[in-house]
């Protein structure tokens, strides 16, 4: 996974787009909250992320991280599944 992220960053760089690869630990906190804090603190203007789906019942019972983030994010998101 990290290789793909590094390759993507290199590809973007060839096209004049500055990108930074970050791996963030949630420290037990709600993942969307942690990501939104980083996005605000670093003044990120585009988020590129992978999305992982759980069965519908699991997401209904516990909520989906991806959907929770998308419901609250205010910047463009490029997502791959």
Please characterize this protein's 3D structure.
With 81 residues, this protein is mostly helical. The protein has a domain at 25-80: HUPs (Rossmann fold), CATH 3.40.50.620. Helices cover 48% and strands 10% of the residues. The protein has helices spanning 2-14, 31-41, 56-62, 65-72; strands at residues 47-50, 77-80. A two-stranded parallel ribbon has the order 1-2. Helix 2 (31-41) runs parallel beside helix 4. The longest helix has 13 residues, at 2-14. Residues 26-79 form the UspA domain.
Question: How would you summarize the topology of this molecule?
Answer:
Layout: H1 2-14, H2 31-41, E1 47-50, H3 56-62, H4 65-72, E2 77-80
Helix pairs in contact: 2-4
InterPro entries: Rossmann-like_a/b/a_fold, UspA
Pfam families: Usp
Domain UspA: 26-79
Instruction: Bin the helical content.
Output: 40-55%
**Beta-sheet strand percentage?**
5-15%
**Which ranges are low-confidence, i.e. pLDDT below 50, for 5 or more consecutive residues?**
none
CATH topology of the domain at 25-80: Rossmann fold
Distance between the termini: 12 Å
Q: CATH homologous superfamily of the domain at 25-80?
A: HUPs
Integer average pLDDT: 84
Q: Helical region count? A: 4
The first-level CATH class of the domain at 25-80 is given as Alpha Beta
Reported CATH architecture of the domain at 25-80: 3-Layer(aba) Sandwich
Computed structural class? mainly alpha
Biggest pleated-sheet summary: 2 strands, parallel
Q: Major sheet: order of its strands?
A: 1-2
Radius of gyration: 14 Å
What is the number of E strands?
2
The H/E string reads HHEHHE
Q: Looking at the structure, what is the overall shape?
A: globular
């Amino acid at each position: 996974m990290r290789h793909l992220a590094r390759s993507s960053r290199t590809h973007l760089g060839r096209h004049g787009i500055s990108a930074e690869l970050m791996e963030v630990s949630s420290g037990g906190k709600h993942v969307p909250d942690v990501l939104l804090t980083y996005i605000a603190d670093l003044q990120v203007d585009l988020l590129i992320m992978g999305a992982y789906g759980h069965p519908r019942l699991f997401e209904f019972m516990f909520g989906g991280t991806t959907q929770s983030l998308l419901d609250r994010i205010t910047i463009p998101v490029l997502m791959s599944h």
